[in-house]
Batch of 2 targets.
Target 1
Amino acid sequence: MTTNQLIATPALRAADQLFTLRNGNDMRLTISERGAALVSWWAPDRYGKVADVLLGYRDLAGYADNSAYFGAIIGRWANRIAQGRFMLDGAPVQAAVNDRGNHLHGGDAGFHKARWKLNASDAGVSLRLSSPDGDGGFPGKLDVQVHYRLDDEGRLTIDFEAVADAPTPVNLTAHPYFNLNGGSADVGDHMLQIDADFYLETDPGGIPVGVAAVAGTPFDFRQPAAIGPRLGWPDAQIRLAGGFDHCYCVKPHAMGRTGPLREVARVVDPGSGRRLQVSTTEPGLQFYSGNSLDGVQGRAGRPYARHDGFCLEAHAYPDQLNGQCASAVILRPGQVYRQTTVYRLSLQS
């Protein structure tokens, strides 16, 4: 039976709290109200040794800035918008720009830096945030709720909801960095599988320029393959991003819209035996191989190196606001935005 325990956090101001979800198998997941961030996820390996499989800062003060987005909830817009510009009901909108002239992850003052209002119960932990009109350049007041649940099967279910008082884009995601070996090495040996025939090629700024087939490319993870060797393939897209930072079309039939919850990716660390499964309602899954981690101060008093962690972020397509399915990501008054992503951590049988 899942149990919960509130933990004091003297490293931050008293208003900043941590909350730990603990399941019946003594798996522990710690969440901060700062950025609604996943701070730690302690889980055993095949030998019973428990380790934290999430990357994070050396102390809680790092989450006040969180330039790496460690574990945070991202909004209002996850991923990128070209030049931060888009049209909404015939009117131009300019969102904040913070990444090579483009909008990324809500801008420098996005949801990842906000202090969310935390409410804990036996059913899990809920966090709420009210984003005012004009926040990050986006129109309308947006009220957001994120609910975390951890069950005895190792499933972390993340349910998102949002309502707005005016038409506005909404595209939320969770941004945990995983390393299933607990940080004893980089993620090169991790075996990744993604159920997608297509991915989005990008320009130097990370903006999609077209849909490409994965077949015959380093992006083909339809069968399990180690991440490390693919980073060295002589591929223009890999060179451009310094690794993987691309969105996979895990539900191309959905035309950029949400659909039923289904499993879309799996990762196994052969050394520890830990396995991560990802399920989502979203059409896109961003695979990021930690290309910019080099020098970021992490746990154990040492900086992270490139490819020390990976992200699998479920959300709408990058720059979808400027594509054919823009209407699918506009939330209007009277509507409710809903999204579910599930990360399941277990041991390979």
Target 2
Amino acid sequence: MTTTLLRTAADLHARARTGRRAVVMTMGALHEGHATLIRAARDLAGAEGEVVVTVFVNPLQFGEGEDLDRYPRTLDADLEIAGRAGADVVFAPSADEVYPGGEPQVRVSAGPMGERLEGAARPGHFDGVLTVVAKLLHLTRPDVALYGQKDAQQLALIRRMVRDLNFGVDIVGVPTVREPDGLALSSRNRYLSAAERGTALALSGALFAGRDRHAAQEALRARAREVPATHARVEALNALGESRAAADAHAVATAGGPEAVRVAARQVLDGAARFTPPLTLDYLALVDPSDFTEIGDDFTGEAVLAVAARVGTTRLIDNVPLTFGTLGAAS
């Protein structure tokens, strides 16, 4: 389809609107993960609606020594990818358009949640993210905005900002897109050498190990619930093929829990620290997505297992969703 490139909010506002406007915010260097977001936006907007993709490398979210200057800028290729995925408009404003008069004196504060994990590793990062998201929501005036779940903390903070500050927009999260080998798609993957990419697979490997450990625990809990709490319990468990040493499946499952998930994931990361080149861990966390605090052993509900690490000079993040206790097994 024909995709229109616009540089100013005035030009965007001048377009006739006949349906829902869905917005996908990016910093460019589009890949299949972005294309998945755009296709989801196309579905939500419908044939009568409009999909707008923003391309803006936001200086406010880069800290000192980070890769603002070398962040890839590939607008021609971005236009082609966006068009193929179903975008009607690519809105690529200049810094002066987004921040007239220079960096804004008034900014959005991410609050306590913005100081944890990514916020602790990159002070001020989420203030910059929320400030530009607020600006772009005002400039593009969407009905719905879509963000990738790979940036889980960012998505949670955007949802919180929209709720707390009464933005009139629906926020939709889209699942992480991965390479066939499990590596989460990221514009920064292009910085990795072949050897570094091999090491980087430990991020998804660790998450999958934690997820598998969690699934095994939930399966044990389910089997324990099915076994009568009577004298016949051991016999029933033995009939299921359980070893005598682990006859009480409920006790085995309870002894695992969130900490066992963390241990399983950390074992993979510890091994990758000895690779050539090595993986340098920033954090591994199992958190409540409502506030990104670590969950306890008695936690029930949705959680996020998140990791951030450096391979060479490239910093990567990834996560998987899990569900503990009464809500079911792994997502």
